[in-house]
Amino acid sequence: MVLTVADRLWQHVGMRTAQRKKLGQFIVADPRICRGRPTFKGTRVTVADVLADVERGLSWDFICYRWGDGKITKEGVAEAVQLARRAWLNRAGHLAEDVAAAA
Question: How far apart are the C-alpha atoms of 29 and 1, rounded to whole Å?
């Protein structure tokens, strides 16, 4: 079973309760918004959509413009990348145990 970054973030958030979870300064997961998928505060823009743009190699300036003309900042994009890294890798930079077990 292959897990996407969005799936990993979803598991990380633990959406078993119906409460908004603050994942960082710019990112939240609220079961009432986008079915609980991590989004940027004050928007319905999902972290998964922004990470897909990063994966495509789009500039962060363009990504910020594309998604709400500045409602998402470069700092917010950086936070999304950092959360994705933490979802996949342990502190030493190795594949996290729970990810390796699921593979």
Answer: 24
For residue 9, with 0-12 CB atoms within 10 Å meaning exposed, 13-18 middle and 19 or more buried, which class applies? buried
Going by pLDDT thresholds of 50, 70 and 90, the confidence category of residue 49 is very high
CA angle 80, 50, 95 (to 5 degrees): 45
**Running DSSP on this structure, what letter comes out for residue 27?**
E
Residue recorded with tokens 């959509």: 49
What is the rounded CA–CA span in Å between residue 10 and residue 63? Answer: 22
Number of domains composing the chain: 1
Question: In which domain, by residue range, is 59 found?
Answer: 5-102
pTM of the model: 0.76
14 contacts: CB under 8 Å, gap ≥ 6 = 21
